[in-house]
């Protein structure tokens, strides 16, 4: 009897540790917020966008039925579902694109460019970084090749 209690207790402790991990709680919050957001998007589509579309053409195809023998295929309901899906997907795309634009990270500043010039230590003129002799004062600079006789 004692082993069963410790096994159940261990199981409950493992479940508690699993349920309290960050990913599970984040996912649960996401599902709840997703449900609420679904209601908002559905209301937007059904109450605002569908009536606007209905101004331009008949948006309700639920009466379209194909009769085959004694049965009927409600193709119109299927077409309505596809249209509603496309509208909801488009609205969701626009909303997510808008929200993502609000959260854009500022661009990181570009890395400073490598210098292309340096200052001659003798005459203080600006010269090419690759120069080994100053074109202004003709001084030998670092990296000047020495002639060996």
TrEMBL record:
The lineage of its organism: Bacteria, Bacillati, Bacillota, Clostridia, Eubacteriales. This is Large-conductance mechanosensitive channel. InterPro entries: Mechanosensitive_channel_CS (IPR019823), MS_channel (IPR001185), MSC/AndL (IPR037673), MscL_channel (IPR036019). Belongs to the MscL family. Keywords: Cell membrane, Ion channel, Ion transport, Membrane, Transmembrane, Transmembrane helix, Transport. One of its GO terms (cellular component) is plasma membrane. The chain crosses the membrane at residues 24-45, 78-99. Its main location: membrane.
């Amino acid at each position: 009897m004692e082993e069963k209690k410790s096994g159940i207790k261990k199981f409950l402790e493992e479940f508690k540790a699993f349920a309290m991990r960050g990913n599970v709680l984040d996912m649960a919050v996401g599902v709840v917020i997703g449900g609420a957001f679904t209601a908002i998007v559905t209301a937007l589509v059904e109450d605002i966008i569908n009536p606007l579309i209905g101004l331009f053409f008949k948006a309700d195809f639920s009466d379209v039925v194909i009769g085959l023998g004694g049965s009927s295929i409600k193709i119109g309901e299927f077409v309505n579902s596809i249209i509603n899906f496309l509208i909801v997907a488009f609205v969701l795309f626009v909303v997510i694109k808008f929200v993502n634009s609000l959260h854009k990270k500022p661009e990181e500043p570009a890395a400073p460019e490598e210098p292309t010039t340096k200052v001659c230590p003798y005459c203080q003129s600006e010269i090419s970084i690759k120069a080994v002799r100053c074109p202004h004062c003709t001084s030998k600079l670092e990296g000047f090749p020495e002639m060996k006789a």
